[in-house]
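Sample entry (285 residues):
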Amino acid sequence: MADTGGIRKGVPQEILPSVHVYADPAEVARGAARLFIDYAWQSIAKDGQFKVALSGGSTPRLMFQLLASDEFRGQVDWGKVQVFWSDERAVAPTNAESNYGMARRELLIRVPIPEVNVHRMEAEKPNIGRAAHEYEEALRKYLDLDDQGFPRFHLIYLGMGKDGHTASLFPGTRVTRQTSRWVSTPMVTKLNMRRMTLTLPVLDAAMRVVFLVVGSDKAEILHAVLQGKSEPPLPAQLVQPRNLGQKLFLVDKAAAAMLAPAMSDKAAPQEKPAGTTRARPGRST
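Predicted structure, serialized as tokens:
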């Protein structure tokens, strides 16, 4: 990758289209939190509500902590936020591996969001297939549909594994757009565990999909996803929002180490990074 030693704190470089490189994981989390706030304001102004699907992982944890902080908490109209998840493990909410459990501890109990606005995947139920059907019904109740009949989120956060998986769509499992299902329950063979996940057509229906990728151990797979040609394509490569949807990668310098920048991208960092929150009257920034 081109030298990013000059990245200023909080100011990313867009070394590839829609790929924003920050100095470290803390700054990636801050950029992700700012996007949450900006997209919440835009969505509430336009549609009256903000419908977002969260992911698990260490970077979302930092983002949740920021959103729950005095600095950010008052910048969101939490009564108009509907929270969902992109995927979940088949564990109880109290389990340390639960995506919902982590979000609840770090964010949801620390902000004034009504309980009825929180829609978790109950993947720990004995009949996980029925639980997936029930989650589809929740999506049907709260989300509008796109022109192909799939629910359309304002924003979906995703991570990416070292094997190129995203949500709970893993290489070697059936990841296809040719499905009418909104929620699936794949068996992840290498983990010997069922998962619950939004399907690829639902990810593709989102207005915005934001990948959060940090750490030197993700450098090789990030290069493969963004600049490689895998056959079959990796799940993270298959996510391609339609209907003018936006796909962003917020990554740290370590994860971006193997990326070759666009030829025209030798410029200084952007003056205004993606997701910079404008000051709101009467609110802290």
